[in-house]
């Protein structure tokens, strides 16, 4: 067995182990890079570590740190309430508000699972109150997150564009971004009308709630920060920052609702919020910072990681205690996964495995068939594993195939691969699907799980074929 085949088998084994066991794939990938690099390729440690994506690491840390602060000081909650007030009494517009907010969050740099974790509980709370189909609401949240996920300053977009640029292939970041948005928006429109959207268009929010007072923003009470995802290395920072967050959000999260009994006999708290309350100084400063992030990175081409950390530092100076919690909320598991897989792919590149795979694929009779197979591999693997890991590993495998003059348009194929590898995150086995399942209220979770599984299976089988026809064949 050649060293190239061994390296590919180890990559496949990583996906299998990470899917079957609750082990971060990044940890497995670092070990794989060490073992394959030293034992199979005879590489030194310095050569193995040369594939470590330091720039991408900085980007991920900076973006997730900034958005953790935006969540903790109530900025995200305020923006959500502002958007909900804009729809007036139109119930049918609520799912689209949730779609737009998650798309906006991911488009300016939020990690997709983080955006879904923020919005899904709010969206499913609205679904329970206003009798909106929870499956439709949950799917629109996920498709919204994926729709905005490939903007030039997003995490997915950054990974994809970096890989393609380093390969010297023609690239169109906006093509990938608008392809993802267009496909997810089209699917969402179909879902909206398939699950009762036409009926919702004839319904209105009760007049007593249209003024903004008493409108439930979160079904779990006043807005609270997302639980820390990383280790709390600052001792009592959790308690200190929680108190600080309550102070910074005092005006925007004043509760005027009460606990009411549900049909099953349990109680669920609904926070009533006066939507006429303006934002706090911290929230306005954070919004200005997010706008500055987009302007400085898009117009002035500054490094997004350094800019995000700089803005995060300025926010930290205003609320030092909130910063302590935000450090723990940086998406360390996702960062470990991405940089681990990227390091392993770097080992494969130095071994020549990437070129070998591309040359082998190019030698097949039908390049279009190869392109279709790659799209199916991306979709199926991503349905059970991390989309970021798939983007970081499969796109490099396809680069030599695209560069070998097969006639397949690289721009169209990359856009198709990007969408095929992320649109399947509706699967309950993916992080986004699991978050929606966990956020559903007052429904049979077993039935909801089966619905997500069926829909996820349909998308996994149909999406690659449709994308192949639209963006590769034509």
TrEMBL record:
GO biological process, one term: transmembrane transport
Cellular-component GO terms for this entry: membrane
Domain Dicarboxylate carrier MatC N-terminal: 1-149
Entry keywords, A to Z: Membrane, Transmembrane, Transmembrane helix, Transport
Membrane topology: Multi-pass membrane protein
Stretches assigned to the Citrate transporter-like domain: 295-471
Residues passing through the membrane, by range: 7-40, 52-70, 82-104, 110-128, 135-157, 177-198, 285-318, 330-347, 368-399, 411-440, 452-473
Cellular compartment(s): Membrane
PANTHER family listed in its UniProt record: DICARBOXYLATE TRANSPORTER 2.1, CHLOROPLASTIC (PTHR42826)
Name of the protein this chain belongs to: Dicarboxylate carrier MatC N-terminal domain-containing protein
Record lineage: Bacteria, Pseudomonadati, Pseudomonadota, Betaproteobacteria, Burkholderiales
């Amino acid at each position: 067995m050649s060293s190239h085949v061994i390296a590919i088998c180890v990559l496949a084994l990583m996906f299998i182990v990470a899917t079957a066991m609750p082990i971060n794939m990044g940890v497995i990938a670092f070990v794989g890079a060490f073992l394959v690099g030293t034992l199979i390729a005879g590489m030194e440690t310095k050569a193995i570590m040369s594939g470590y994506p330091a720039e991408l690491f900085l980007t991920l840390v900076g973006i997730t740190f900034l958005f953790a602060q935006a969540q903790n000081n109530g900025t995200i909650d305020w923006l959500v309430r502002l958007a909900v007030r804009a729809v007036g009494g139109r119930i049918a517009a609520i799912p689209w508000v949730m779609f737009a907010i998650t798309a906006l969050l991911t488009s300016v740099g939020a990690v997709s699972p983080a955006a879904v974790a923020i919005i899904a509980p709010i969206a499913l709370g609205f679904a329970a109150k206003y009798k909106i189909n929870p499956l439709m609401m949950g799917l629109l949240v996920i498709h919204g997150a994926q729709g905005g996920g490939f903007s030039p300053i997003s995490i997915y977009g950054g990974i994809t564009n970096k890989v393609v640029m380093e390969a010297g292939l023609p690239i169109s970041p906006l093509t990938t971004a608008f392809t993802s948005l267009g496909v997810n928006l089209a699917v969402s429109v179909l879902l909206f009308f398939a699950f009762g959207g036409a009926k919702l268009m004839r319904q209105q929010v009760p007049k007593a709630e249209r003024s903004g007072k008493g409108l439930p923003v979160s079904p779990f009470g006043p807005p609270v920060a997302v639980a820390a995802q990383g280790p709390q290395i600052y001792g009592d920072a959790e308690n200190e920052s929680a108190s600080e967050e309550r102070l910074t959000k005092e005006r925007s999260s004043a509760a005027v609702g009460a606990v009411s009994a549900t049909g099953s006999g349990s109680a669920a708290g609904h926070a009533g919020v006066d939507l006429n309350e303006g934002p706090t100084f911290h929230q306005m400063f954070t919004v200005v910072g997010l706008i500055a992030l987009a302007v400085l990175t898009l117009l002035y081409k500054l490094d997004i990681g350094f800019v995000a950390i700089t803005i995060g530092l300025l926010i930290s100076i205003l609320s030092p205690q909130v910063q302590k919690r935000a450090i723990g909320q940086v998406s360390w598991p996702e960062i470990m996964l991405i940089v681990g897989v990227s390091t392993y792919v770097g080992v494969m590149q130095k071994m020549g495995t990437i070129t070998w795979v591309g040359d082998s694929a190019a030698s097949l009779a039908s390049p279009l068939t190869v392109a279709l197979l790659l799209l199916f591999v991306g979709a199926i693997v991503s349905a059970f594993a991390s989309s970021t890991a798939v983007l970081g590993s499969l796109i490099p495998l396809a680069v030599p195939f695209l560069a070998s003059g097969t006639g397949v348009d690289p721009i169209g194929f990359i856009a198709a691969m990007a969408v095929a590898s992320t649109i399947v995150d509706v699967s309950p086995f993916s992080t986004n699907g699991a978050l929606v399942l966990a956020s559903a209220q007052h429904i049979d979770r077993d039935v909801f799980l089966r619905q997500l599984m069926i829909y996820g299976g349909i998308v996994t089988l149909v999406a690659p074929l449709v994308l192949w026809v639209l963006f590769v064949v034509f």
